[in-house]
Design a protein that fits this description.
With 339 residues, the chain is α/β, with parallel strands linked by helices. Helix content is 24%, strand content 17%. The protein has 10 helices and 13 strands. The chain has helices at 61-73, 92-100, 121-127, 141-148, 153-165, 186-190, 192-195, 223-228, 302-314, 334-337; strands at residues 28-32, 78-82, 107-112, 131-135, 172-177, 199-204, 233-234, 244-245, 248-252, 259-263, 276-279, 284-286, 295-296. Strands 1, 2, 3, 4, 5, 6, 7, 8, 9, 10, 11, 12 and 13 form a 13-stranded mixed β-sheet that branches. The structure holds S-adenosylmethionine and iron/sulfur cluster (SF4).
Length: 339
């Protein structure tokens, strides 16, 4: 694992945003609040689980807030809480309240499997959470339970309904298609956007964590969604150009209430537009999901924390190196990083 030379001083950005070596302005932080999860999705975690961080190795809320504050001083505007499953972290609404107070946080979002969301959606919204992305890989209860190794589809659907009720909008659903496992549901899952004003996003399976050892046949290009639903066409932006939402390319069809997003890290590398950094639950900055580089942030404050963040941002690679034969270089699995 390479570490940044934080001893070298990095000039503070003279514009609103810190930029990496490729000139990308960093404005999006994915903050993992736990490596634990109530599910064991087949592509994410081994059935028996993985060694978990010790309680004392997980950042406290105060430490997470200090990190977010320093990131916002460097231009971060969007913060997404993730995990593991962020809803297993006790007191999450309190963390949301604390982060809402941080100057510069314009959007505060959560990525969740939603199985624990129903009872707390209202409290999270009241605390200042703006929106949620929900992972949903099947609409068939038995298959959902098999993929998540024990999750209940009804709980996830109740969580989605509660999120809507609480005004956590716009709602986005994320699906990972896996060849021979759930790719026959592409049309059904995309079809949720036919009648509902949601973005249904298909994320290509990546060779990281458990999936790094999977056969190639599991890796379905997101193009399969367009083949399964031929009526979908690109959504046009204001100038007629194909519209994107972050790393998602957007598609829809006449009469559809929502949109379908394709997130294609494998078949269409989108790293040129990546403006995100990640912080793990044990307080290490990852400039790229797939690189081995990490910069420890724990115990730092003030200028030392800023310098560590700038050093990490400078390490952001031009692009990831994954393809059909090269797996992710990340030493950590997805449940440790947060996706
Ligand atoms: N537990 C929460 C959830 O499932 O939404 C948040 C953490 S999870 C690690 C974040 C996202 O990573 C999920 O949408 C999940 O589907 C995705 N993910 C995990 N492993 C993946 C892999 N090998 N390839 C693509 N996406 C993956
Ligand atoms: Fe848990 Fe999310 Fe990983 Fe599934 S994808 S095991 S819900 S962290």
């Amino acid at each position: 694992m390479r570490s940044a030379q934080t001893a070298r001083r990095h000039p503070r950005p003279d514009c609103a945003h810190a930029r990496d070596g490729e000139g990308r302005a960093i404005e999006y932080l994915r903050l993992s609040v736990t490596d634990r999860c109530n599910c064991r999705c087949a592509y994410c975690m081994p059935a028996g689980g993985v060694p978990m961080l010790r309680h004392e190795d997980v950042c406290s809320f105060e430490e997470l807030v200090r990190i977010v504050r320093a990131c916002c001083e460097l231009g971060v505007r969007k913060v997404r809480l993730t995990g593991g499953e962020p809803l297993v972290r006790r007191g999450l609404p309190e963390l949301v309240r604390m982060l809402r107070e941080v100057p510069g946080v314009e959007e505060l979002a959560l990525t969740t499997n939603a199985t624990l969301l129903a009872p707390v959606a209202g409290e999270l919204a009241a605390a200042g959470l703006d929106r949620v992305n929900v992972s949903l890989d099947s609409l068939r209860p038995e298959r959902y339970a098999a993929i998540t190794r024990g999750g209940r589809l009804d709980d996830a659907l109740a969580g989605i309904a509660a999120a809507r009720e609480a005004g956590l909008a716009p709602l986005k659903l994320n699906c990972v298609l896996m060849g021979g496992i759930n790719d026959d549901e592409a049309a059904d899952i995309a079809g949720i956007a036919r009648n509902e004003a949601v973005d249904v996003r298909f994320i290509e399976l990546m060779p990281i964590g458990e999936a790094a050892r999977w056969p190639r046949a599991r890796f379905v290009p997101a193009e399969a969604v367009l083949e399964a639903v031929p009526e979908l066409g690109p959504v046009a932006g204001p100038g007629g150009e194909p519209l994107r939402d972050g790393v998602a390319e957007l598609f829809s069809a006449p009469g559809w209430a929502g949109r379908v997003g394709l997130i294609r890290p494998m078949s269409h590398r989108f790293c040129f537009g990546c403006t995100r950094i990640r912080v793990t639950a044990d307080g290490r900055l990852k400039p790229c999901l797939h690189s081995a580089d990490e910069v420890p942030l724990r115990g730092l404050s003030g200028e030392a924390l800023t310098q560590a963040l700038l050093a990490g941002i400078a390490l952001k690679p031009a692009h990831h190196g994954m393809d059909g034969t090269h797996a992710s270089e990340s030493a950590r699995a997805m449940n440790e990083i947060g996706g």
